[in-house]
TrEMBL record, chain A:
Lineage: Bacteria, Bacillati, Actinomycetota, Actinomycetes, Kitasatosporales
Residues spanning the membrane: 49-70, 216-237, 257-284, 305-326, 338-360, 387-411
Keyword set includes Membrane: yes
Positions with biased composition (Basic and acidic residues): 196-207
This protein's UniProt keywords: Membrane, Transmembrane, Transmembrane helix
Chain intervals for the UniProt region annotation (Disordered): 180-207
Source superkingdom: Bacteria
Keyword Manganese applies: no
Protein name (Swiss-Prot/TrEMBL): Uncharacterized protein
From TrEMBL, chain B:
PROSITE patterns per the UniProt record, alphabetical: ABC_TRANSPORTER_2
Keyword Nucleotide-binding: yes
Protein source organism: Streptomyces qinglanensis
InterPro entries the UniProt entry points to: AAA+_ATPase (IPR003593), ABC_transporter-like_ATP-bd (IPR003439), ABC_transpr_LolD-like (IPR015854), P-loop_NTPase (IPR027417)
UniProt-recorded Gene Ontology molecular function terms: ATP binding; ATP hydrolysis activity; transmembrane transporter activity
One GO CC term on file: plasma membrane
Entry protein name: Putative ABC transport system ATP-binding protein
Amino acid sequence: MLTLRLTLTATPAALLLRLLLLCASAAGGLLLLAALSYALEHPGHRAAVLMRLLWCLIPLAATAHLAVVLGRTEPRAETRLGLHTAGLGPARLPLLAARTAAVPALAGSALTLLLTVRGGVGSAGGSLSVLNLSRPSAAVLPLQGPPLPVPAAVTLLSALPVAAALAAAWGARAGAAAPAPEDSWRSADGRGAVDSARRRDGTETSRRAELLRSTLQAASGLLTGTAGLLLAAYAARTSGGAWDLAEHPGEVAGSPFAAAWTLIGVGLVVAGPGLVALSGHLLGAARPGPVRLLAGRSLVREASFLGRPLGGLSAVAAALVAVFRARPAGEWVPAPGPLVAVAAALTGCCAAAAGLAALARVRRARAPVRELLERLGAPRQLGRGVALLRAASVAAVYAPLAAAAGLFTALPPG
Amino acid sequence: MAAPPDDVLWARGLHYAYDGSPALQGVSLGVREGEILAVTGPRGSGKTTLLRCMSGQLLPDQGEVWFNSAPVHTLGRAARERLRLHRFGWIDSTPHLVPELTAWENAALPLLLHGDGYRAARSTACSWLERLDVGDCAGKRPPALRQAQRQRIAVARALVHSPTVLFADEPTAPLHQTDRAQVLRALSAAARSQGITVLLAGHDFALDQAARTAEATGAALADRIVALTDGRRARTPAPGGPAAVPAGPEGAAACSLSV
């Protein structure tokens, strides 16, 4: 009941997040069922089936990440304080978060089950099975194979809500506090905060260590991405004839291209925090004025919270660029198979939502600093200038990276 | 109506309500140049609201605020921000520092906002930190410091641009007795030497007039004490009462003040 009430009184943004989780869960369920359908259709192709199932992991991970975001932001800070006072402390809050995320995910899975069932669960050949779709939907959804066995379908569909619930509980655990709460050094669940505070006490050695760490992070991410680019180029050189992405997505999925693209995406995500921190260091270097000082230092501080979601966003942008390049001549957009389209849309939406949620979180966490500056009498233009400079420097780091990754990725000849 | 000439800050008939719940109900107050005026009263008596109204952070619902014979309550938002930035200093009851800046950058923030050079701001801020006995923390960030050190950095930030009026809203609330005495002495010594007018809010000036705590609460340092009760001026405590009692030596922490 508490979960329901919290859902009913949630803000529009939180409701949108839940709706997105519902859609992601439905789409993910559809992908899993498609893999099952393919497996039933081709009992001999074990490797291909396994490959399809493995590819479902990426949308699944994106959905789980969305659930982590939901667990972090919901319930809101004020509600959380009230719940804490009422006895719903750090031990039980993850349970609440798990329920909060499980409800929309379950609804999404149920939606998928409903969509794939025509006229209820019938019995075919003595055993229960999910019947296939009616004609018009069957043309869109690739579930033309034999009827799906209900236990298998339900088991597969329950994977997403379980993953979402676990991820949300993990996101709501005590250590995952906001990036810079007003009194981070005094926060109740404070060991992590204090440890990180000691690490960042600002003395010369710790600052050097910080710089070194972010450089290493950025370098490792960029190296991974470069390795992905090289692998894609190698695959393009060694692969033979033309591939039709629309008709045989399975071939691409099993080829080195897929591994290369994954590597590029992972590289962008891994490099994120280091790149944001480095840009912050650069911004705050060489006798900065107040705008540069505040923007640079805040970027350094928030790098670990902002970097990965922004890296994910840039990976999505790179993918969009690559898709645009891969379109067949004369057409505005390429026509990939429905499954690929669903998976790509799901992953992209989840990454975008996670990125936007991270931005919103960081903005909320900066409210005390804004209030402080107002109290000191800092002009309003200062706040705007700082925000603009932060956005501009982050964009200046990520836009070229995403563009380069998208433009220089080798595509399968087609 | 013009303000009396000898009052640097002057308020008349201030009314303020937070969403309908009244905080100030007709407070009038004059602050003379260079004096340390203590505003006392229990929690919820309107001390903070009074200070925020007088410093231009809040606009009173009714009443007037004059600074140096110029009205503050009719100024626009930007003009009040400028006034706060250039002429006023503010110390909170908890040290609100920017967590990602080092101690000296925090202290130098008003100077940097004025447009001073980085090096000049740094040397001024560091000298203030030295005077307040936190010079060795200049390169550290607030999360690595103790609360008393952070509060001293906040004091340095409020004094660094030599404001005309310093508003201190219970500056010793989060500190222990020894730290309280030290911070208040540092504050008052700095204000006296620079001729800064101080408006000091605190809730325990009148409550605890024992000899050892008189200095720790700031009552001994104030020229005048104004008592607030439920958003109104209460009867002023007898002058010289708490201030006449000398401070005991054992409560004071060792500190070197050269302000």
